[in-house]
UniProtKB/TrEMBL annotation:
Sequence ranges assigned to domain Type II secretion system protein GspF in this UniProt record: 39-161
UniProt-listed PANTHER family: GENERAL SECRETION PATHWAY PROTEIN, PROTEIN TRANSPORT PROTEIN HOFC HOMOLOG
Organism: Endobacter medicaginis
UniProt protein name: Type II secretion system F family protein
Pfam family, one: T2SSF
Annotated membrane topology: Multi-pass membrane protein
GO-annotated biological processes: protein secretion by the type II secretion system
Transmembrane portions of the chain: 138-160, 180-205
UniProt-listed InterPro entries: GspF/PilC (IPR003004), T2SS_GspF_dom (IPR018076), T2SS_GspF_sf (IPR042094)
Keyword Cell membrane: yes
Location in the cell: Cell inner membrane
Keywords in alphabetical order: Cell inner membrane, Cell membrane, Membrane, Transmembrane, Transmembrane helix
Length: 211
C-alpha cells in the first residue's frame, strides 16, 4: 500500500538474491526480464481484444530467444488441450511462481485476466528496475574497494620491500606489528595473481546474480 514495495534480500552459497516476495523464479526458466516483457505483451494484446490462443501464437512467432518460445509453446499446447492458463503456467514452476499462477487464476475466475496481467507486468518491471538500481549503486563502492585494495597491495608488495634491507642493516629488533606487515607483504607478493582472479570472479558473479 501507499506505493511501498516489499523487498527480500536473501543470502545463500551462491551469493545474494534480490526479489519481491513470491515472484522469485526457479532455475532454468524465464529470466525476470523475459517474464516481465512477455507478461506486458500478453496483457496488451488481451486488452486489445485478442483471444488468448492468438496472443500466445503471436508471441511465439515474434520471440527470437529459444527459451521463451519453448515455454510459451508448452503453455499454448496445454491451453489447446482444454486447460486453463493458470494450469498451464503451474506446469512451468521454473518460470512462473506460485504467486504469479495464483494471481492469474484469480484473474481468470473474476474475468479480469487482462488487467491482472497488466498489474503483474508493472510489478515485475518495478522489480527489474529496482535490481538495476541496486546494481548501479554498487558500482561506485565496488570501485572504491578495489582501488583501496590495490593501493594496499601496492604498498605491501612494492614499497615495503624496499625498507626491509634497511631494517635488517639496523640490527634493531622490529616490533611484532612491523614483522607481521612484512610477512603479509611477502605472502601477498607471492599470491597476488590468484587473489586478483578471485576478486574479479566475485565481482562478475555478483553482477550476474543481480541482473
Amino acid at each position: 500500500a501507499q506505493g511501498r514495495m516489499p523487498l527480500s534480500i536473501t543470502a545463500d552459497r551462491g551469493g545474494v538474491s534480490l526479489t519481491l516476495p513470491g515472484l522469485s523464479l526457479g532455475s532454468g526458466g524465464l529470466s525476470r526480464s523475459e517474464l516481465a516483457h512477455l507478461t506486458r505483451e500478453l496483457s496488451i494484446m488481451l486488452g486489445a481484444g485478442q483471444d488468448l490462443d492468438r496472443a500466445l501464437r503471436f508471441l511465439i512467432e515474434t520471440t527470437k530467444a529459444r527459451r521463451p518460445r519453448e515455454v510459451l509453446g508448452r503453455v499454448r499446447a496445454h491451453l489447446r488441450d482444454g486447460g486453463p492458463l493458470s494450469g498451464a503456467l503451474a506446469r512451468e514452476p521454473g518460470s512462473f511462481s506460485r504467486l504469479y499462477v495464483g494471481m492469474v487464476r484469480a484473474g481468470e475466475a473474476g474475468g479480469t485476466l487482462g488487467p491482472t496481467l497488466d498489474r503483474l507486468a508493472s510489478v515485475l518491471e518495478r522489480e527489474r528496475a529496482l535490481s538495476a538500481s541496486v546494481q548501479s549503486a554498487m558500482i561506485y563502492p565496488t570501485l572504491l574497494i578495489v582501488a583501496a585494495i590495490g593501493s594496499i597491495g601496492l604498498l605491501l608488495t612494492q614499497v615495503l620491500p624496499q625498507f626491509v634491507p634497511l631494517f635488517a642493516e639496523s640490527g634493531a629488533e622490529l616490533p611484532a606489528s612491523t614483522r607481521f606487515v612484512i610477512a603479509l607483504g611477502a605472502i601477498v607478493g607471492a599470491s597476488w595473481l590468484p587473489a586478483l582472479v578471485v576478486a574479479v570472479a566475485a565481482f562478475f558473479a555478483g553482477r550476474a546474480l543481480l541482473a
